[in-house]
Specification:
heterodimer, A: 107 residues, mainly beta, six-stranded mixed beta sheet, four-stranded antiparallel beta sheet, globular, B: 121 residues, seven-stranded mixed beta sheet
Chain lengths: 107, 121
């Protein structure tokens, strides 16, 4: 199974900050990497597919990059509604594994 | 509007069974692969199972293989997950999710709201 390691697992940031979350895969997944946002009590929401393709309706302050084993999700100009938990997921092979999550909290 | 609505969760004793359902609307259900993902409250997401568009091919996480069975009824736009021999560690919120297919590099583009399964005596 492909393991995905997200870091940090928790970060505290202020509105307007730029934050970066990393996701490292235990083996190459090409660009088959997605990012999801999850708020408490809600289902995950797809933000980015194919490592860097922003989904329709997702604000442009979200961006993704990377390929192979190293990926990043960047949120520029953090907004109050961005405080949530973020997960990466690899879609290269089964089982479809997720990273452990990064909780973004208001400082 | 795409909608996925799960049902069937509840409290069940260890060793018991449940059948979860996910009713789909707003898209051509029979054209999409579907997945189940679970989440222990306060913990991360774990992929559980998948089924192809016509139901002829399925796959499972190792932790549930042999106990869980995924199926679908394309005539009723419904996905199912039969869960048997339930254990305390199966306690989780179970989500159904649509596979976005080639256009989304197989990311899960829509998710249901989840149904809670609690295994306890």
């Amino acid at each position: 199974d492909i393991q995905l390691t997200q870091s940090p697992s928790f970060l505290s940031a202020s509105v307007g900050d730029r934050v970066t979350i990393t996701c490292r895969a235990s083996q190459g997944v090409s660009s088959y990497l997605a990012w999801y946002q999850q708020k408490p009590g809600k289902a995950p929401k797809l933000l980015i597919s194919a490592a860097s393709t922003l989904q329709s309706g997702v604000p442009s302050r979200f961006s993704g990059s990377g390929s192979g084993t190293d990926f990043t999700l960047t949120i520029s100009n953090l907004q109050p509604e961005d405080f949530a938990t973020y997960y990466c997921q690899q879609l290269n092979s089964y089982p479809r594994t997720f990273g452990g999550g990064t909780e973004v909290e208001i400082k | 509007e795409v909608q996925l609505v799960e049902s069937g969760g509840g409290l069940v004793q260890p060793g018991g069974s449940l059948r979860l359902s996910c009713e789909a609307s707003g898209f051509t259900f029979s054209s999409y692969w579907m997945h189940w993902v679970r989440q222990v409250p306060g913990k991360g997401l774990v992929w559980v199972s998948r089924i192809n568009s016509d139901g002829s091919n399925t796959g499972y996480a190792g932790s549930v293989k042999g106990r869980f069975t995924i199926s679908r009824d394309n005539a009723k736009n419904t996905l199912h997950l039969q869960i048997n021999s339930l254990r305390a560690e199966d306690t989780a919120v179970y989500y159904c999710a649509r596979d976005g297919g080639y256009n989304y590099d197989y990311a899960f583009d829509y998710w249901g709201q989840g149904t809670l399964v609690t295994v306890s005596s």
